[in-house]
Design a protein that fits this description.
By secondary structure, this protein is of the alpha/beta class. Helix content is about 40%, strand content about 20%. It has a single domain, classed as 3-Layer(aba) Sandwich (Rossmann fold).
């Protein structure tokens, strides 16, 4: 694990899986500015390697539903096999155009938040903080706006 990935052991560790490098960079930068430690992957295969190599439990998975080598929901199950306590946030930009994907998003577990792309940094951080607060034994990043 690189120094960048292991910034601090007191904040939540988030694995971001996104095949668009621009979106991946945006999410990673937003999470780091929010005080979170972040691992990244562009494919399901890479995500499983990163997940299994992590020296810490992964607290949150921010996951694109459509990946070039797998469905995000399948990857979610595989990562949960490695990190049973991991919380999940699903993302996609295609739901309005793809009725099958839209139906899958609508039928997903209601405890799994969904962010439709494009989303703002504020929407991402708010959803991440809310999901981490809901999860068992998941540390939260410090809130820079708290007083």
């Amino acid at each position: 694990m690189s120094n960048e990935e292991e910034e601090t052991k007191t904040t939540a560790l988030i694995l971001v899986v996104e095949d668009d490098p621009t979106v991946l960079g945006f999410i990673r930068r937003t999470l780091k500015r929010g005080g979170f430690s972040c691992l990244t992957a562009e494919t399901a295969e890479d995500a499983l390697q990163v997940s299994s190599a992590s020296e810490r439990p992964i607290d949150l998975l921010v996951l694109d539903i459509m990946l070039p080598d797998s469905w995000g929901t399948r990857l979610m199950q595989d990562v949960r096999a490695q990190h049973p306590e991991v919380a999940v946030i699903l993302t996609s930009g295609f739901t309005g155009d793809d009725p099958v994907l839209a139906a899958g998003v609508a039928a997903r577990d209601p405890d799994i938040p969904f962010l439709k792309k494009p989303f703002t940094p504020e929407e991402l951080l708010e959803t991440v903080r809310e999901k981490l607060a809901d999860g068992p034994n998941t540390p939260q990043a410090p809130n820079p706006q708290a007083g």
